[in-house]
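Quick review question:
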């Protein structure tokens, strides 16, 4: 997996430069130097951490593979069919990894930095977590248990991540309806990065958007997107970006008045509080829905 990502890095940099030039030519909101530098620092940190920890993830997949339910072929026509099945299976695992990363605070602490930029451009795609390499692999273990070889799993993971780079842009509008119906596109992913109440915790797909449509988390792009977090960070320091939510969660656990509250501070959705003084994304969306007039 890491090899494919390394090979793609030069293309990422070239495309960022091309996008910055195109945004300037069109007099659109472009790059902000400190924000871009923070995103690139997060990306480099992620690559380093992922490279160092990848052996652990592969070992986990290999352990699960020892107890696989099926021996799947990897060559010939049958092998091509297995790769096709893996494409859908890996994307489904990514959907649930991503969704849990928004709906459980422990995993949100690892993922939140990706949403911390108020800009939306190709450099934002590189603003990756330094801790998801440790919290993420468990979500792909079912693939190894079914019988997909660990090398196949990490390869398809890399394909998914490379695909998701290009959808972090405002230069591309809506694509033809059949494409928008099936694939994750820039329009769908702009929604995912929005802090508009109606856009919170929507469009989790990796390559495909069909899982969001099936599981009720899809939201089309309608209103202009306000990017960032519900409570934005006022820093470009990569260390604070990477660990601010881990620190906040630890403070909440230490201050908890009971073991049940402490557990809730870790396993409940971001924004949860035992007295209801704060609101989770779903509660905010429910409140928005209650305020909206009924369609005539």
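Suggested answer, residue by residue:
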């Amino acid at each position: 997996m890491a090899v494919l990502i390394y090979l793609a890095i030069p293309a990422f940099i070239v495309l960022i430069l091309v996008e910055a030039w195109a945004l300037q030519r069109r007099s659109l909101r472009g790059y902000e130097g400190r924000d871009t530098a923070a995103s690139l620092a997060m990306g480099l940190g992620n690559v380093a951490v992922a490279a160092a920890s990848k052996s652990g993830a592969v070992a986990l997949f290999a352990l699960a593979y020892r107890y696989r339910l099926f021996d799947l072929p990897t060559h010939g026509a049958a092998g091509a069919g297995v790769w096709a099945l893996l494409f859908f299976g890996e994307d489904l695992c990514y959907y649930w990894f991503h969704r849990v990363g928004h709906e459980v605070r422990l995993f949100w602490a690892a993922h939140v930095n990706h949403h911390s930029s108020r800009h939306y451009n190709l450099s934002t795609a590189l603003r990756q977590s330094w801790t998801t390499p440790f919290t993420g692999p468990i979500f792909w273990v079912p693939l190894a248990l079914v019988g997909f070889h660990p090398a196949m799993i990490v390869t398809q993971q890399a394909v998914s991540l490379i695909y998701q780079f290009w959808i972090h842009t405002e230069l591309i509008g809506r694509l033809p309806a059949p494409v928008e119906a099936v694939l994750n596109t820039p329009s769908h992913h702009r929604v995912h990065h929005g802090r508009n109440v109606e856009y919170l915790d929507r469009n989790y797909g990796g390559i495909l958007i069909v899982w969001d449509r099936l599981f009720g988390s899809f939201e089309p792009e309608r209103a202009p997107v306000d990017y960032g977090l519900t409570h934005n960070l006022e820093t470009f320091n990569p260390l604070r970006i990477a660990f601010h939510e881990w620190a906040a969660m630890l403070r909440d656990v230490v201050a908890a008045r009971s073991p049940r509250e402490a557990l809730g501070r870790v396993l409940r959705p971001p924004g949860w509080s035992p007295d209801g003084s704060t609101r989770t994304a779903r509660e905010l969306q429910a409140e928005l829905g209650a305020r909206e007039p009924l369609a005539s």
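Why it works: DSSP finds 14 helices and no strands in the chain. The chain has a mean pLDDT of 93.
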